Amino acid sequence: MSEDSLKAVFREPAAASRRDRKRAAQAEKTKAKAEPKPQFAPARSVLPPLNKAAPMSRRARRAQRIRDKLFSPTRIITAILSIPVIAVAVTISLYIRTSPHAPENALMHLVAMSGCEGAALVGLAPATKGRLGYHDRNDPDGNGVACETADQIAAAEQERLPGEETALRVVGGAKFVKP
Question: Which of 152, 151, 107, 110 is nearest to 128 (CA)?
Answer without folding.
Answer: 152
